[in-house]
Amino acid sequence: MKLSINCLPCLLNQAIRLAKVHLESEEEQCRLIKKILQELVEINGNTSAPYLAQKIQQALKDALQNSDPYKEQKHFYNQEMLKLECDFTVLIESSSDHLQTALKFAAAGNIIDFGPGYDLSRDKVLQTVHETLKKALQQDVFLSLKSDLNKARQLLYLGDNAGEIVFDKIFIRTIKEQYPSLEIYFATRGKPVINDAVEEDAYYVGMDAYASIINNGTDIPGTIIEQCSSNFVSVFNKADLIISKGLGNFESLYGTEHRNLYYLFLCKCNIFKERFDAELNDIMLIRE
């Protein structure tokens, strides 16, 4: 999905917020913004938002001389969401459709995103969970997903953010319970970027109990196949079914016409509200 011109003000606002949060002096802040503006000037027509976001984050890492500025925050949200896992599991097991409810939990976890600068308090996350459980799914797409899960031998699940991956683990565990012969791979980013999950996060939350953990070899907050490692691309191409989690994965993959690819995320910006006639934080379950 090509970068929309409407994404540019959002990305620039994110950059300004990053500068103010992470850099003390106005001189350092201006230096970072100038570097980011240069990246914006040099974009071409085929650039996607995740690719440009990586450039912005690399400029921040360089300014801070820190390869993982969000490490503490990622660990905090992994811990906090693990504390809630048992409560979430009880809600799923008490529901009439375990798979559908677990999918809604996975979607709700997508609120844990440092990029847009949302209120990410624990209470806000819980509020989003309860609101999401009441929302409707695109039932035709959900039924199609169930059918494909029943036929698939290998599932690749593209992860998104730390903390959020606890919700993904619950969903994957539910999938594994209902489709025990399914081989599942869970993919993280190859290197730290924003609060996106890396392999360390996936192992920390216990994802390896239900899926083989791999990484895509990049620090782009999305999945740009041309930039990914050969090992990841091999798994991607062999998978019978792919669940792509989060907006960054959608923005970098949608329109590439890969077979049996499902997208799952929350509608978090006006571009997607207009494109899909959705409301803020609606569940987006889309088949390529």
List the helices and strands and how they pair.
Elements: H1 7-22, H2 26-41, H3 49-64, H4 71-93, H5 98-108, H6 122-133, H7 139-151, E1 154-158, H8 164-178, E2 183-188, H9 199-204, E3 212-215, H10 230-238, E4 241-245, H11 247-253, E5 261-266, H12 270-275, E6 283-287
Parallel strand pairs: 1-2, 1-4, 2-3, 4-5
Antiparallel strand pairs: 5-6
Helix pairs in contact: 1-2, 1-3, 2-3, 4-5, 4-8, 5-6, 5-8
Descriptive key words:
6-stranded mixed beta sheet, alpha/beta, single chain, Helicase, Ruva Protein, domain 3, Rossmann fold, 11% strand, 288 residues, globular
Task: Please outline what is shown here.
With 288 residues, this protein is of the alpha/beta class.
Task: Describe what you observe in this structure.
The protein is an alpha/beta fold and 288 residues long. It folds into two domains: 7-64, Helicase, Ruva Protein, domain 3, CATH 1.10.8; 71-287, Rossmann fold. The protein has twelve helices and six strands. It has a six-stranded mixed sheet, sandwiched between helices. Helix 9 links the parallel strand 2 (183-188) and strand 3. Helix 2 (26-41) runs antiparallel to helix 3, helix 4 packs antiparallel against helix 5 (98-108) and helix 5 runs antiparallel to helix 6. The chain is globular. The termini are close together. The model has no long low-confidence stretch (mean pLDDT 91).
